[in-house]
Amino acid sequence: MSYRIHVCDDEPHIVLAVSLKFSKAGFEVTSASDGQAAWESIQRQPPQLLITDLQMPRLDGLGLIKRLRAEPALHDMPVILLTAKGFELEEDEIRNEYGVSHVLCKPFSPRELVALANTLLEASAAVANSEIKQASGVASAPRSYGEDTGGRTSNDSYFERNGASHRCCGSEVSCEVPAASALPLIKVSTGGLTPPRSPEVLAN
């Protein structure tokens, strides 16, 4: 099955590198440079997964996620939040309040991002199958997001059952943020929104 993802970031070289990596991995990719454009695209063509930056013009990442959670058809969409703020974020609060599946610090490895996306999509598919069985009268575990777990997402239960952590900027690290010298990395400039003259295209 080919999954559709949406990538939203106001730095074009990040969108380019991530989109290329996912396309090569067999994903269908749509993208936008700000939260408002992403929201309009998602309404027209909903993806199975959203990858969004935190700080963007017009509508930031949290504002975009808040709109998703208010829409019944999009409520349970897995979300990976990208940020250069790292430990400045209250990750637990963001995950509980907005249902963010994973907070990923910049710089990051596109290869690790693809692996993370596959894991989240597998979890989402498992939950969907469980709901189908439940609707057919087959006993299954209840949905966890927004019901009786204080805002934990359905994906939380999946990771716990499989003994894996899905926090990257906090104390539980499953996807190490590479050192500045490691490759492949997306180099992020926080001083402005102008991309490098020759964007680095990552092949690994």
Descriptive notes:
- The structure is a single chain.
- Helix 5 packs across helix 6 (154-161).
- The protein has a domain at 4-126 and 157-161: Rossmann fold (3-Layer(aba) Sandwich).
- The protein is globular, with a radius of gyration of 17 Å.
- The protein is α/β, with parallel strands linked by helices and 204 residues long.
- It has a five-stranded parallel β-sheet, with helices on both faces.
- The chain is built from six helices and five strands.
- Helix content is 37%, strand content 12%.
- Helix 3 (61-70) links the parallel strand 3 and strand 4 (79-83).
Number of helices: 6
Q: How are the strands ordered across the major sheet? A: 2-1-3-4-5
Mean pLDDT: 76
Q: Output the CATH homologous superfamily of one domain.
A: Response regulator
What is the makeup of the main sheet? 5 strands, parallel
Structural class: alpha/beta
Q: What is the second-level CATH architecture of one domain? A: 3-Layer(aba) Sandwich
| Parts with pLDDT < 50 across at least 5 consecutive residues | 139-150, 157-168, 170-204
CATH topology of one domain: Rossmann fold
Total beta strand runs: 5
Secondary-structure element series: EHEHEHEHEHH
Broad CATH class of one domain: Alpha Beta
Label the overall shape. Answer: globular
